[in-house]
Amino acid sequence: MNNLWHNVSVISDNRFIKVLIVILVAIVCQQILKVVLSGILILQSKSEPSSVKRKYRQKQLKTLNNIARALSIFIVWLVAVLTILNTLKLPIAPLLTSAGLIGAAIAFGMQSLIKDFITGIFIVIDNQYHIDDYIQLNNIVTGRVEAISLRTTAIRDDDGSLHHIPNGNIGITTNLSVGRLKAREQIDLSPDFSTKQFEAKLADIAEKLASDPETARYVKEGPILESIDKITSKAVTVTILFSTSATKRKAAVSAIWALIRKEKIPLA
């Protein structure tokens, strides 16, 4: 019995074993936090009664979940590293002091990185956009948000390109997933076809789009005649207006043009 207690005390005093235990505890804590955060995400998203609000809530929580997970992992391993240093009897205070001084010196040369972090925090706090939102940044880059961190935003363009934009460079943000997009399309009609006849045909097209469950998903309203832009001996150029979403605009245009041809509207 005395030998057994002696062996246990020897093992417990072994620094290598203590370091392994700290690492194992950190891994377990990391997995527990991952499960807990995922559980909170599921519960919170189900709490919304409206399907539209639930979808928006899911995107919001997914964004916050990714950031919270990254921060929690950082904190867990920071505590683990400090615990290991203490276990190995290494002086922590001088290291923290040195790290603070070095950090202060480096900060002067890392203003853009600090700006990225601060802007990223405000993007999350203000709910400017979330993962899976379709957005436009600085009137230049347009696409679906694939990832958001405190430093960068990753956007998948329509052509498949993945853009990584530092948050500090983001100025004007347009969230195209919120609300409806008022889209326009120009059509050249035959001069022999009156605009009243065309409006009647558009009303039929709008009714067919609304009655079809497939097209009703991405053509919310219209099309209607918005304006007559130009009249010549060869064509009457008109603009039609319809409501859709940014991600489904091409599908909406295709559906409208298919019905224009099906209705045999004379084009120039």
Protein described:
This protein has 268 residues and is α+β, with helices and mostly antiparallel strands. It has 8 helices and 8 strands. The strands form 2 sheets. Strands 4-3-2-1-5 form a 5-stranded antiparallel beta sheet. A hairpin with a 3-residue loop joins strand 2 and strand 3. Helix 2 (15-46) packs antiparallel against helix 3 and helix 6 crosses helix 8. The longest helix is centred in the N-terminal third of the chain and has 37 residues, at 51-87. The protein is elongated.
Notable characteristics:
SH3 type barrels; five-stranded antiparallel sheet; 55% helix; Alpha-Beta Plaits; Helix Hairpins; elongated; alpha+beta; single chain; 268 residues; three-stranded antiparallel sheet; 8 helices
CATH fold naming of the largest domain: Helix Hairpins
Largest sheet: 5 strands, antiparallel
**Structural class label:** alpha+beta
Q: Approximately how much beta-strand content do the residues carry?
A: 15-25%
- Head-to-tail CA distance between termini: 102 Å
Low-confidence stretches: none
Q: What is the number of independent domains?
A: 3
Gross morphology: elongated
